[in-house]
Amino acid sequence: MGACGSKFLSKKKLKSKRISKRRVSFNKLDKIDECGKRDARCHSNSSTLLASKEFAWFDCCSALDQSEIDDDFYSVHDDFEDASTLRVASPRDSFNQKDQNGDAWNGQLPCVASAMSSDDKARVSSPRAPGAKRKLLSRLSFKFKEGHNNQNSFPPKVLLQRPKAGSSLSFCPLEKKMSNSWSPIEPSTFRVRGQNYLRDKKKDFAPNFAVYCPFAADVFLSQRKIDHIARFVDLPVIDSSEELPSILVVNLQIPLYPAAIFQGENDGEGMNLVLYFKLSESYSKDLPVHFQEHVNRIINDEVERVKGFPLDTINSFRERLKILSRLVNGEDLHLSTTEKKILNTYNEKPVLSRPQHEFYLGENYFEIDLDVHRFSYLSRKTFAAFQDRFKLCKLDFGLTIQENKTENLPENMLCCIRLNEIDYSNYRQLGV
């Protein structure tokens, strides 16, 4: 009897200990839920405040800082990103990149973590705490809104493995209409700094020449943004030039997840608009010598001295790279009054691509990555407002190099292309 009694007591004590542990764990969960609710209320209040005014969701002063020397704009850091983390790739970067441990990187991207951990799943399925289940689901819902690494957002499709450049978008003559296509456009349709810009601040149409001409374009989806995308695409063989790379690849990395104010990282689901250009056969005759030298200085990652007060500074010449973009068919989008005002104000407004750009030099190509994921919250919020209507848009895109001396004006075009009504939901993920 004594032995049986001791066993009974020990089991009873053990059971009470287990119950107490459960109570402690659920108490911790309640505290976490309360913190999550307070964060959610703060997030909700901030969103309400942003939406309280007509232009509150697009603050042009915060989204794009105005240049001191003209009405061009600078691309800006994301809201909470440290500028010291940005890196400009050197042309000497090897194809076989290495990680911090010195091991060769095989080109595979890290897996996207699930929004719900194994412990959370266990608590949700537990029949012992129905109240905790509702609280946990509320907390997970809030975390899902803030996090955007949802691995199941894109429908499962076979990954593209080293596709040929230009295999996803068709060529379309400018005078015809075709969705999911690209068209060549004249460089002279873009307005750039004119010959007397430093005196009268007037823009003129660019000279009708460009260093690179378009020959193809692609759309690829990805769970994480893809850097140096030319490694995963089969580029054509084009006669090389001694002065400049024969192919220019422009990789526009565009997010497809909601813009979050308190975004911890600048990566997630998105699309890569990849534009391919080939070196113009007559560029050495058509373009001024100083502009050809500027292109070489960008490719070779040279620096320049910039006069300033109280001291001069040394800047990378790549900081002169400037984006020109415009919506051609705004009347087809049925824009609201606010959206029309924004479009009229900022359409075709030049933007210096720094610091959200990276550069890669290959054997016969030069790649420029323009990372929209790292733009400020308000800039990404503006793009998100047009995201659902992207398949209705005709967009012109071009690159130029900013000129700050009268003798080097007018500015010339590096490249330009038109994208016609791209429906990104029709495309597949790129295998990397």
UniProtKB/TrEMBL annotation:
Name the source's superkingdom: Eukaryota
Instruction: Describe the location of the Protein ENHANCED DISEASE RESISTANCE 2 C-terminal domain by residue ranges.
Output: 182-423
Q: Which PANTHER family match?
A: CW14 PROTEIN, PROTEIN ENHANCED DISEASE RESISTANCE 2 C-TERMINAL DOMAIN-CONTAINING PROTEIN
**Protein's name in the database:** Protein ENHANCED DISEASE RESISTANCE 2 C-terminal domain-containing protein
Q: Which organism is it from?
A: Citrus clementina
